[in-house]
Amino acid sequence: MSAPDGRRRPTNAEHDDETSLDRATSRAVRRRSIALLGDLLRPHARILAWAAVLVTASSAAQVAGPWLVSLAIDKALPALPGDVGPLAAIGGAYLAAAVVAGVAIGAYRRVAARIAQNVLLDLRRRVFRQTQRLSLEFHESYTSGRIISRQTSDLEALRELLDGGLVGVIASVLVMTFTAVGLTILDPLSGLVLMTGLVPAWFLLRWFRKHSQVAYREQRTWSARLIVKFVETMTGIRAVQAFNREATTERDYDRIGSAYRDANLRIFGINGRFAPGLLLIGNVTVVVALAAGGWRVLEGTLAVGVLVAVLLYVKRFFAPIQQIAMFYNAFQSAAAALEKVSGLLAEEPTVVEPAEPVDLPAPRGELRLEHVRFAYGDGPVVLPGLDLTIPAGQTVALVGTTGAGKSTIAKLVTRFYDATGGRVLVDGVDIRDIASPVLRRNVVMVTQESYLFSGSVAENIALGRPDATREEIEAAARAVGAHGFVENLPDGYDTEVNKRGGRVSAGQRQLLSFARAFLADPTVLVLDEATSSLDLPGERLVQRGLQSLLADRTAIIIAHRLSTVEIADRVLVLEHGEVVEDGSPDELVDRGGRFAALNAAWQDSLV
Ligand SMILES: Nc1ncnc2c1ncn2[C@@H]1O[C@H](COP(=O)(O)OP(=O)(O)OP(=O)(O)O)[C@@H](O)[C@H]1O
């Protein structure tokens, strides 16, 4: 991300890959997660309040049970057999409490599940929208595997948290609180025993928190790396197989997989000590409460019924701790996931929309670069200061050694990146002042890979202008010479690409992307020509398509073929980000400089 001075600011998603953060960063990351959570829950405030009422009612009703049992033992049983009234009343109250508790908890679970699912959907949408919104700079540094793991495994961890426990755990925590309060009111001394049991439990919890936080971050980081490695290998499978890299990539994958396994084992190790430790503390507390209470019953200072209620309360207090401990795992994992997702969501596009956009009412397509300076992030300067004017309608071919900065110029003119210094102007307007929909309509980039989306051929062409009619789509295909082969596909324009029968060759793919650009009809076209060599008829076809595409518009072509350079009005030879030769192809050949040499080499390669 570039600050106004051109230096790089740290990004929010930058800490993604670290397992231990310093205290301040850790706090900032947590604050960011909590803010996101608040933001997600805010629209559900009213229904959340309703859920809180339901769960509170259910917990209070549950806590009444042991107290009613103590009343039955100490008050109602001694009145028998003469007076069955108290026992019947207590029995009735017990039943009523059970019904209230059951109905309220059922309703609470349904309401809470609906909130959880809506929050998840909202988060999924936000992640998707955000990844589409972020600038190319972000995508070039944040690998697609990492984005995939944000959208898949991180959201899955949050789903597990919300589906698999949070709702129950909130109810359990409330029951525990009510139980502790109820017990203390019933018999303060036993309340004290319970509180004493909580002291070692609290220390154990602190130990667990400290260790598991690091372990869970580590687990998620390795899991993301595993996905990155897999996605990278699969997207580059051709290169992997062509260069015999299978064994090396497998070794790398194994190494990451082992680290992931070790991270998981560490978590199990921590849990293996935490859960039994808590259980032990709970049971010891029950024994102490029983011993102390039993002693007082013998002394005659405690009623038997109250002792029974005390034991029921203490047991009930510790019972959900196991569940909460297990839940803590899901919580840790989800908290780590939320940290990463919130980092992605907090990321701002580096290419900023203008506050007061300037329109281009009658675009002509004149391009001007004024002292354009550029460097990627903290990297070396790619363009030291480029001055260039391209009159409307001119076709300019950019040639030059690899790394000279040709693609960089293309990315600056199309505003996928902003220049670090200087300005890029279209018809005299700084492109930073043009709203992106207007800019994208007028300046279109056709990239090397000519990406085809799943869908029909017609749909792929219509990407250039979604409201185009079938006639316009076919006219565009005809104009660039794609109509012939499209008609020969099994279902013509309705053939699904990327499916059996819909496979298109590299040249045909380029023609489709030309048709797409033709339909979009931009004033300025930037074309990164594919380097893949086509057979001669294929090349001629593409060349003819290109010529019709270029007519009547300004074009910058990163040229890799002689035939392309020949149809250009002007050739710019670039070296280390500077124009070293500028002229028509014929002039440059006559001048006998670098272009002449390149041209000779191209001519040679044809014979
Ligand atoms: N996303 C990026 N992040 C950092 N550096 C980059 C990035 N893209 C390109 N560069 C660097 O910028 C310089 C210019 O690259 P550019 O892609 O513009 O060259 P090019 O002339 O188009 O080369 P080629 O013909 O090989 O495509 C190179 O040194 C390259 O390493």
Topology:
Elements: H1 23-41, H2 45-79, H3 85-133, H4 136-141, H5 144-186, H6 188-235, H7 237-242, H8 246-299, H9 304-346, E1 367-375, E2 381-390, E3 395-400, H10 406-413, E4 421-426, E5 429-430, H11 436-442, E6 443-446, E7 455-456, H12 457-462, H13 470-479, H14 483-487, E8 496-497, H15 506-520, E9 524-528, H16 536-550, E10 554-558, H17 562-566, E11 570-575, E12 578-583, H18 585-591, H19 594-606
Parallel strand pairs: 3-10, 3-11, 6-9, 9-10
Antiparallel strand pairs: 1-2, 1-4, 4-5, 7-8, 11-12
Describe the structure.
- This protein folds into two domains: about 15-345, Up-down Bundle (ABC transporter transmembrane region fold), CATH 1.20.1560.10; about 365-605, P-loop containing nucleotide triphosphate hydrolases (Rossmann fold).
- Helices cover about 65% and strands about 10% of the residues.
- The protein has 19 helices and twelve strands.
- α2 (about 45-80) packs antiparallel against α3, α5 (about 145-185) runs antiparallel to α6 and α18 (about 585-590) packs across α19.
- The longest helix is centred in the middle third of the chain and has 54 residues, at about 245-300.
- The radius of gyration is 35 Å and the shape is elongated.
- Bound molecules: adenosine-5'-triphosphate.
- Adenosine-5'-triphosphate binds next to α10.
- Adenosine-5'-triphosphate (ATP) binds next to α10.
- It is a multi-pass membrane protein.
